Amino acid sequence: TVRPDITNKKYITLEKLDSQECPKVETPQFSLSRHQVGADRLSNVYYMPNFLPSAYLYEVLLPWLQSIPSCPQPTLEDCSMNSSSALYWTTLRYSQRRVMMLQSPFPPLIEAVAQALFQSGVTWKDRNRCVENEGSTSSSNHPPNHVLINEYQPSMGILPHTDGPEYQDKTATVSLGGSDVILRFTKRLLTDEIGSSSLNQENRSLDKPILELVLGGNGSLVVFEKDAYTKHLHSIKDGIFTEKIATESTNSTETSCVSLNENGVTLIERGYRISLTFRRK
């Protein structure tokens, strides 16, 4: 286990954290055209290798996240937190991965990242638009109001999944901790395709990645939305310490801790990583 021993630390309450001033984090501007990746294979996926500044990551955010103790409750639902809850990690039974689920209002250091996303142009529309007049609607941009934080030890991954209809069809994930990993997108079997005999062998190969994207572990940002969110699964391989990806792949030259072998393959040594996945309900 890479994280420090925090078993003797007291709970940190959100009430105490909310009294602190939210720091301002300067980040680059997000651009749909400039940061789109893999458009020839999958639309609506965007990547920035260095979104959060290193000083904020390693002097402020990461030490604070690692100082938060673990939760005594066994399930994620028991540890879903809001402004009246204690702040702690919980360990998922099926994966042994520590997670933390927060809803707005966020603790100041998380709110700083949410506001950085919003100010850079990563925004969500109002799901329930107000109808002012017949044939006319008003909508505005909003910051995220939900974040799922995952702590990954070097060999840990996550099975193919979607984030589901409870949230709007956009997700923004920031990675920190220094470790690169490969995020894989695969086709999702639609409801009317389940059990269909008309699917050919190619369509049945649902575990073959449509897009592989290297997520840098030093403050990178990946955003995906629309079909990439609703019609595709995303995953990180579990149970491995080393990954390989073709050097000419989408963004393999933008990784932070890789080495190249003589066969034109990028070798990624997995390490400790924390991801913050922001969404809006």
TrEMBL record:
GO terms assigned for molecular function: dioxygenase activity; metal ion binding
Signal peptide start and end residues: none
PROSITE patterns, A to Z: FE2OG_OXY
Domain of life from the UniProt record: Eukaryota
Fe2OG dioxygenase domain mapped to chain residues: 143-281
InterPro entries, alphabetized: AlkB-like (IPR027450), ALKBH6 (IPR032862), Oxoglu/Fe-dep_dioxygenase_dom (IPR005123)
Gene Ontology CC: one annotated term: nucleus
SUPFAM superfamilies: Clavaminate synthase-like
Keywords: Dioxygenase, Iron, Metal-binding, Nucleus, Oxidoreductase
Localization of this protein: Nucleus
Family the entry assigns: Belongs to the alkB family.
Protein name: Fe2OG dioxygenase domain-containing protein
Origin species: Proboscia inermis
Taxonomic path: Eukaryota, Sar, Stramenopiles, Ochrophyta, Bacillariophyta
